[in-house]
Amino acid sequence: MALEEQNEVASHLEDANDLQEGFFPNDDKTQKYGNLLFLLQSEPRHIAHLCRLVTMAEIDSLLQTVMFTIYGNQYESREEHLLLTMFQSVLTYQFDNTPEYSSLLRQNTPVSRMMTTYTRRGPGQAYLKQVLADQINSLIELNDVDLEINPLKVYEAMVQQIEASTGSLPPYLPKSVTAEVAAENEQVQQIIAPRLKTLTDIANAFLETIIDGLEETPYGIRWICKQIRSLSRRKYPDAQDQTICTLIGGFFFLRFINPAIVTPRSYMLIEATPSDKPRRTLTLVAKMLQNLANKPSYAKEPYMSKLQPFVHDNKERVNKFLLDLCEVQDFYESLEMDNYVALSKRDLELQITLNEHPTSAFAAD
């Protein structure tokens, strides 16, 4: 081993020893560290304030520690309710300090990251598997079913197939056209028409399963929806339910349902990555569901306007579903009792890994 390499290894070993000494403080420091973690857990307003101070580059590591360590017992009512109390503080601040309704919960902010990370906890993952797994697995078995409705992509695939089978293209089918020309082509329209119906049938099946799973929706997800509705009505008392439902739907569909539909393997809903055609179909279904939650704009993807009948036919019942999600009881009285019981215990344990230890520096600062 070269001398430089030996020096580098020795340097790393010295650094490791320093880290070990730092990670295993004396009893007094351990007690103070434990007190800090207990304070952070039992007084969620501190973490809520902390989440507003960190940068976007820091938020993910902080959220990992908060969601899965400080409140890591994901099926224990006290920790779940404390975590939801933190959400209430963060959402209240967000509503109070966002000047325009159209900007609420829309941007990629620490708050939106928090909401997305929360959905990855155990109860949310179990719900997604129960409600979506069968629909997704049935769809990805259709490996050869092409449901592309973008006229330009349909046109390109069509001329490629014609050229491959005949060796050339007729004069009226140029190889390269604009999206507008492709959309006006009668052959393209004939290809797309049955695909629109199939997509609508698939999206309706997904939607039916989601609506039927109302009572299986995790309490925390529903309670956050309730807070969005409550804060919206408080700040905008004249806002109609339909308008408020766009915010609730933005959380429920955009942050919770759609990521699992678009990337089901990362949510452990399927074992293998779907092939290109089913993956594209899943993306289109997710877009259709999102258009139900938000006021759809077809400026960037005008071909999606062909699916507007799906939005029109289901908008009312989706809004009812989103409002029904909000109909859950509060937990404040039970949390007070849970806190009393927790304080009466001799020892409260919170397990934290060495990798997560530096995250506490956020709080110390």
TrEMBL record:
GO biological process: negative regulation of Ras protein signal transduction; signal transduction
Domain of life: Eukaryota
A single Gene Ontology CC term: cell cortex
Gene3D superfamilies: GTPase Activation - p120gap, domain 1
Matches recorded under Pfam families: RasGAP
GO MF terms held by the record: GTPase activator activity
Coiled-coil zones: none
Xref: CDD domains: RasGAP_GAPA
Stretches assigned to the Ras-GAP domain: 78-294
InterPro entries: RasGAP_CS (IPR023152), RasGAP_dom (IPR001936), Rho_GTPase_activation_prot (IPR008936)
Name listed for the protein in its UniProt record: GTPase activating protein
Organism of provenance: Ajellomyces capsulatus (strain H143) (Darling's disease fungus)
